[in-house]
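Why do we care about 3D structure at all? Because function follows from shape, and shape follows, mostly, from sequence. That is the central idea of this module. The next example makes it concrete: a single protein chain, its amino acid sequence, and then its structure expressed as C-alpha cells.
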Amino acid sequence: MALVVFNQKGGVGKSTITCNLAAISASQGLRTLVIDLDPQGNSSSYLMGDSNAPEGADVGGFFAYCLSYTFKPIQPADYIVETPFENLHLMGSDPELNELQTKLESRQKIYKLREALQQLDTDYDRIYIDTPPALNFYTRAALIGASGCLIPFDCDDFSRKALYTLLENVQEIKSDHNPGLEVKGIVVNQFQPRANLPQRLVNELIDEGLPVLQPYLPASIRIRESHEQCMPMIHLEPKHKLTLALCALHEVLSRQRQTA
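And the structure:
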C-alpha cells in the first residue's frame, strides 16, 4: 500500500508525519520506503542528515531516466538508498525536480510513478510518499499511483478553507485516473487542546462528516529537536507523548489496511 501525505498548504507537517510514520513501520520490522517528491527535500534531510546518496540515486534520477531514450526497463530499486535506520529506505528528493517537471508534463510521463510503485509493492510492506505543497505534476503522479491519501491539518481557518479544495482535487483524480484512491483520513497536527479555536475547528470538521483521525498529534518543541538531530521520534524519545500519539495513529492506519 502506497500512502501519499498531501496538503497544498505548506508548513502543516507533511514531512514530519511522513518520516515518523515510516520510522514506526520500520521499527516494527516492516520493510518501509519513503519517496520524497518535494524539491525542498525535508524528508530526505530528516532521514539522512548530511549523508550524500550516490549521484542520480534519487527521485530526480528516476524521472530523468523516464525521459531518456532507451528500451531498457526502469528498475526503481536503482534509485533507492538505505537510511541509518533498519528496514527504512529512501528514494530521496532532488533540487532538479522543478526543472524536470515541464519536460515530464510535455512528454506525458504522469503514469511512470504508478508503474514504479507497482514494481516496488512486492519489495516493501509500507510505502510513504511526501509531496510538495502544490497540486503539480509530482503530486498528481503520486495520487494516481497510490492507494491512500493522508491529509495533515493544522488548526487555523486558512487550513480549513484549503481543505475543501484539496478534497475536491483528490476526488477528481480518483474519478479520472485512480478509482482505488481513498482518503484515509485527516491528521490533526500541532493540536493544542486548551485553545478554543483548534477544538472548535476540529469539532466542526467532525460534524461535517469528514474523516478526522484520532488521536490528534500534540504540539511539542521536541519535534524540532527531532528534526535537528535527524532522528524520528520513535528513536529519539519512544515514550514521549507525541511519539505515543504517532504510534497510535500508525495503529489506526494499520487496522484500516487490514480491513481494506
